[in-house]
Design brief:
The complex is a heterodimer of chains A (about 60) and B (about 475). Chain A has two helices and two strands, in the order αββα. Chain A is about 75% helix and about 5% strand. Chain A is elongated, with a radius of gyration of 15 Å. In chain A, strands 1-2 form a two-stranded antiparallel ribbon. Chain A is mainly alpha-helical and about 60 residues long. In chain A, helix 1 runs antiparallel to helix 2. Chain B has about 475 residues and is an all-alpha fold. Chain B has 20 helices and two strands. The chains are: A mainly alpha (about 60), B mainly alpha (about 475). The interface between A and B is large, with 35 and 43 residues.
């Protein structure tokens, strides 16, 4: 459980930092999936993190409880 | 619209009181303090996640976030959309630790003050913790009352100010909380969570339709102001420092906000808590996403009160009424959970024994919740413009309690004192900077960032000096 929690915290911070610097690499005039690319990228980051939590918890509950 | 609003209001009130009364009737014996304040720590997955969702999402999300997207552009997604999902991760990490930690006690403590008491902290530490949470949560309660009563006043004006609706809202909240305790709050939280989800998506759907599709909406926005499509936004607010501060203060909320700590401890099992956490992370995105479209639609509308314009021109009136009920429900559920949490923390502070063994606990909690509600009601009549920026200061203040909360895991008395001093120092400097006695920026760094650096540095030293860790 300890490594699971630490992995989740580290990945959360990493995703936040990636999204924080992303506007400096992505052009504001660019659109992706009908939305400004910075916003689309941010939404993808949020969903990625959610799915990661889901997979981690799913595996943990299957193995340990 | 007024007819819809009255019908929905009555239905919502009926549901609230029906469940509160039904619950009391089902209990043949009188409700003891453990059931009233902590629901016997037997809250399942659905109520745990809807409870956390409802206590976090409030007028801040429904009214504040569309305005924030309108004013500051896409960076607002990083501010809340990403940070709130990270909050779910931190909630998971802290939740499992604190649940494991509290299981080591003979009588499992259910709130932070009880944990501090069980760990033999001195009276000053307890007082400092409870006082700070109260002082910093009052502004947040204030914006809930102000936001919801303002919308009601616009729809059904009574008098010249929203005072009447503020009083109605606070009175209803205090009445049903007094009847059913925390379980009644959980039930209204669940109703509120579903109303929020339904109404925000309904409004977003009509907004997208009025703008001829998502792409058209953003193309029109880019023609008005391209800075809205990037960071730091047209006004330069969403810079890296601001986003870092907001990230830290939001992910620290499970540690320092008493209503969240209590919700973590009330989940019936670790398994239920873990599942609720994952559900919470997904729902966070589902609730914030529609506010993007509502906010950007606001850019295209020249009206100052764009939300009212959208609700009266873009959406059918039934959704205008539902949105107002949604905001009221959001404000009430956030406020009642915070009032209950503050009341319980003070109740624990005044009780010599554990609060669940104190016969007068329920009365303590009700009196304190009423006093705090009245103070917030008075403050809600004052003028302030940005709901978001006002409430951020409230969160920053509580985040500086982290060293004190962390010291719970240490047994070394000297280190505990150092960490307490660190919390007192950070809170004092922050308050002085808010009062403009100390400058808000030092060498181009915001004072909040400097205080976070000092706080984490001090905590790291204490961590390495201590041998006992939770």
């Amino acid at each position: 459980m300890k490594t699971l929690s630490v992995r989740i915290v580290v990945l959360s911070i990493l995703i936040f930092l990636i999204s924080l610097v992303s506007p400096y690499f992505l052009k504001k005039t660019m659109f992706l999936f009908n939305m400004p690319v910075i916003l689309t990228f941010g939404i993808i980051c949020s969903f990625t993190l959610c799915f990661y939590y889901f997979i981690e918890i799913f595996i943990y509950l299957k193995e340990d409880i | 619209m007024k007819t819809y609003l009255i019908i929905f209001s009555i239905t919502y009130l009926f549901l609230m009181f029906f469940y509160a009364v039904k619950y009391i009737k089902n209990k043949n014996t009188s409700i003891d303090a453990n059931e009233f304040l902590f629901a016997n720590s037997n809250i399942g997955i659905v109520f745990t996640f809807l409870g956390i969702l409802a206590t976090l999402f409030s007028t801040f999300t429904l009214q504040g976030m569309p305005s924030f997207f309108k004013e500051h552009g896409v960076g607002a997604w990083i501010f809340l959309g990403i940070t709130d999902v990270c909050l779910a991760g931190m909630l998971l990490y802290f939740g499992l630790k604190i649940r494991k930690f509290t299981r080591t006690f003979k009588v499992v403590p259910k709130n932070m003050t009880e944990i501090l008491k069980a760990q033999n902290f001195d009276k000053f530490s307890l007082f400092f913790y409870v006082l700070c949470t109260t002082i910093f949560l009052i502004p947040y309660i204030t914006i809930q009352i102000k936001g919801a009563s303002f919308l009601f006043q616009q729809a059904l004006p009574i008098g010249e100010t929203p005072l009447f609706w503020s009083i109605i809202m606070v009175s209803l909240m205090l009445i049903y909380s007094s009847f059913g305790g925390i379980r009644a709050i959980y039930i209204t939280d669940a109703i509120q969570g579903l109303i929020i989800l339904l109404t925000t998506w309904a409004v977003a759907y009509f907004v997208i339709k009025s703008s001829n599709g998502i792409e058209n909406l953003f193309i029109q926005v880019s023609q008005i102001n391209q800075d809205l499509l990037s960071l730091p936004g047209p006004k330069g607010v969403l810079n890296i420092q601001f986003l870092l501060i907001s990230f830290i203060l939001i992910v620290l909320m499970p540690y320092v906000q008493p209503q969240l700590t209590t919700r973590i401890l009330l989940a019936k099992s670790d398994k239920a808590f873990l599942k609720a956490n994952v559900a919470f992370a997904f729902f966070v995105i589902l609730v914030i996403l529609p506010t993007v479209f509502i906010g950007f639609r606001g850019v295209l509308i020249e009206e100052e009160n764009f939300l009212l314009y959208i609700l009266t021109h873009d959406t059918p009136l039934i959704f205008y009424a539902l949105f107002i009920i949604g905001v009221m429900a959001a404000a009430m559920s956030t406020t009642d959970s915070q009032l209950m949490a503050i009341g319980t923390e003070w109740g624990s502070f005044f009780s010599k024994v554990n609060i669940i063994d104190n016969k007068n606990a329920k009365i303590y909690v009700k009196i304190i919740a009423s006093i705090v509600a009245i103070i917030s009601l008075i403050l809600a009549q004052s003028n302030f413009k940005s709901l978001i920026l006002f409430s951020i200061n409230s969160f920053i203040g509580t985040s500086y309690l982290l060293p004190l909360v962390y010291s719970v895991s240490l047994k070394n008395g000297v280190l505990r004192k150092i960490l307490l001093t660190l919390s007192v120092f950070c809170v004092s400097i922050f308050i002085l900077s808010m009062m403009k006695i100390i400058p808000k920026n030092i060498f181009e760094l915001k004072i909040e960032i400097i205080l976070y650096i000092i706080m984490f540095f001090g905590m790291s030293i204490c961590y390495f000096k201590s041998n006992v860790k939770v």
